[in-house]
Amino acid sequence: PARRIWETPQVPEEYLEETLRNFNPDGYKPEHELFWALLSETNRYHYATRPTGHEAEEEEVREADDVLLLLCLAERGRVDVRQALGSTYGGQAVGNGTRFLRRYILSFYLWCNAIVSCGWQYDSLKWGDLGLSSYLRRDLMRDCDFFTFIPSWRRLIAPEVLFVDMEQTKEVLKRCFRFLYVLHLLEAYRPDVTFDFAAAAVLKPGELAEIFRLPRSVKERL
Q1: What is the DSSP string of 65-92?
Q2: Segment 43-56 mean pLDDT
């Protein structure tokens, strides 16, 4: 799929605009929003295929996702991965946007898993930092100088959905895991070298734990 994306002559602007609208319906556009939209959404970019007679190859093309499209745009200078990951935002103690967003998503992910593992999903009094009136729960539903959560995922963590519809709850947890994992890989990406994502995706001992390492102040409340 990556080879076919690199061969694609032009990504339609309409597709990128639609991706941005789906990612953030409120229209809040921080710097590098296209990067975050392509990273976090699981769209399937359907670009033109040439008839090859090889059914397997055509199936691969249909399965290419927006992370590969993101890398294609990075190679063409349209998206700057390193700048997006290193950018700082605003005056509300955000600092580095990547660390800020990752901390919120990781806190949410670990709290959810702890609640479900303990069988407390139907007892909101035991939800700790994810309680309905908690600061974390409120912060996840609104942005400040940068995203506190993926905007288009907020419908999945609304009070009438999270822990009420367990299929939707599992879906948002899968998205969080994927986001954290892919973000970890992209932090190793360098545009000026040949980067082997297949090799990078095989984590060394301890790396998976590092992805899900929380600051001590958050860990103590879990």
Answers
A1: BHHHHHHHHHHTTSS-HHHHHH-EE-SS
A2: 54
User: Over the stretch 107-151, which tens digit does the pLDDT of each residue have?
Assistant: 999 999 999 999 999 999 999 999 999 999 999 999 989 999 999
Distance between CA atoms of residues 58 and 211, nearest Å: 34
Burial 142-152 (b: 16+ CB within 10 A, else e): ebeebbbbbbb
Tell me how far apart the alpha carbons of residues 187 and 150 are, in angstroms, rounded to a whole number.
18
Residue where the block lists tokens 């367990």: 166
Mean of all residue pLDDT scores within the chain: 81
Residue 71 class from Cβ within 10 Å (0-12 exposed, 13-18 middle, 19+ buried)? buried
Residue 199 has pLDDT above 80, yes or no: no
Return the amino acid letter for 220.
E
Q: How many CA atoms lie within 13 A of 113 on its CB side?
A: 11
Residues 6 or more apart whose Cβ sits within 8 Å of residue 42:
65, 66, 175, 178
What is the reported pLDDT for 171? 95
β-bridge mates for residue 44, sequence order:
65
Q: What is the pLDDT of residue 38?
A: 92
**Residue with the two structure tokens 């939707």:** 168
pTM of the model: 0.82
Q: What number of helices (H) and strands (E) belong to the chain?
A: 12, 2
82 in Cβ contact with 127 (< 8 Å): no
Q: Which two tokens stand for residue 76?
A: 């063409």
Tokens standing for residue 149: 């959560």
Q: Determine what percent of the chain is predicted with pLDDT higher than 90.
A: 48
